[in-house]
Amino acid sequence: MNLNLPGYRRLRHICLVKKSLFFFALFSYLLATSASASENGQDIKSTKHKKQLTIANSKAWKPFSYIDANGEPQGLLIDIWKEYARVNNVEVSFVLTDWNESLQAVKSKEADIHAGLLWSEHRETYLDFLPGIVEIDTQLFFSSKLWGTDVDSYLESGRVGVVSAGYEETYMMQHYPKVKLIAFGNNELMLKSAFSGEIHAFVADFQVANFYLYTSQRPNQFSPVKHLYSGLIRPALPEGHNQLRLELQNGFKRISAVDLERIQRKWIHVETVYPKYLLPMFIALILLLTAAYIFHLRRAVAQRTHDLNQLNIELQRLASIDAMTDIYNRRYFIELLQQACDDNQTGLFLLLFDIDRFKLINDNFGHSVGDFIICEMVKTIKRQLPPEAVFARIGGEEFCVLIQGLTAEQSQELAKRVQSSVTNSHYCHDNINHAISISLGAVYSEDVYIDHQFLINRADHLMYTAKSMGRDCYQFNKL
């Protein structure tokens, strides 16, 4: 064969070109595969060495942290820590439990970090705190049954719910040592107890209480009556972990202010976005309502004035009435007594009495039975009193009656009748008959100017004299 023929040379050239293209394609494929494997290896290595953080907090501290119906952690603090994990390329897991257990988890190093809490001197002994991320206000809440009750007086002896090991418990113990604190494992348990009537007052963060109240069926059952303190929720970690503390401080700086505001607005603020087509409809509606308002202005003003007057009358009534018995309260009774003493023209008669051994009823049958007996006893005594009598509850089981215009003989007879009416009555609750008695002090005065406190003290002395004589009797004295 002649290898120098033109056709043969062209064929050999084509074969060489194909071989070159084949080896070039093979080399490119191997290079790309190697690069992809290298990138995957780096990703696997990065994932394998991603930092893990375990974060503890309360399971029932809405809207800051809680466990939802699906068992998932939710809340403002949870979202902040998820954002921290995203911007810092770390993994976080949450341990949500009762408040005291969340502190113990960090203290025992079962958790790396506490998601957020208030600083206190005691907590400073075992925790290092980071800068604050959310501000809270803490208030004392009263139920509607305590309307008209003096807040400061209640804090001297009343029962108040708090979260066990929470800052509010520490604060109340330091500032109101005489109050009886009822501790609960978390806010949800405390609010359930409040709604069931077991407690009538509690201390809670304003945002937390509002979240629970306004997602309940009775949002107006409790109201804030006293601001206690404000503070910043601050993340915390076990004392001495300086490297982790620096990492956390630097990590929080990477979260933008815009993202923090977005998270807070999601849980604390409500923003409504309206469709654009509603604007012209809204303007037309405003014009229509404005015309209607102008047309009915005089009638609306008159009706509103009437409503305000009625509301003012009702508020005045509530301020003077004991919520449980529907008779006058101590404050209003003292005002009326002082006025009567300053201008005593027709003779003044004061009864002061309380229920004998009432504590045994509460201890043996519960406060609900005790409250029932008080209300029924009030009805019994009302039937013995003339219409002009001023009847008031001035203490837990202590009562006063003020009457003007009677003679001394009529007053003594009325004192005897009131005392015996209670002795002769029985009050049935849950098929159990309860018999009670009262010890009564009665004082009658015709002096024109007499000190009201002297009159109360004299009646109180007579009541205790009746108790010393064996109870279930009365003592009368004409001044």
From TrEMBL:
Disulfide bond found in the keyword field: no
GO MF annotation terms: diguanylate cyclase activity
GGDEF domain segment(s): 346-479
InterPro entries attached to this UniProt entry: Diguanylate_Cyclase, GGDEF_dom, Nucleotide_cyclase, Rev_trsase/Diguanyl_cyclase, Solute-binding_3/MltF_N
Signal peptide: 1-37
Lineage top rank: taxon: Bacteria
The protein's name in its UniProt record: diguanylate cyclase
Organism per entry: Shewanella benthica
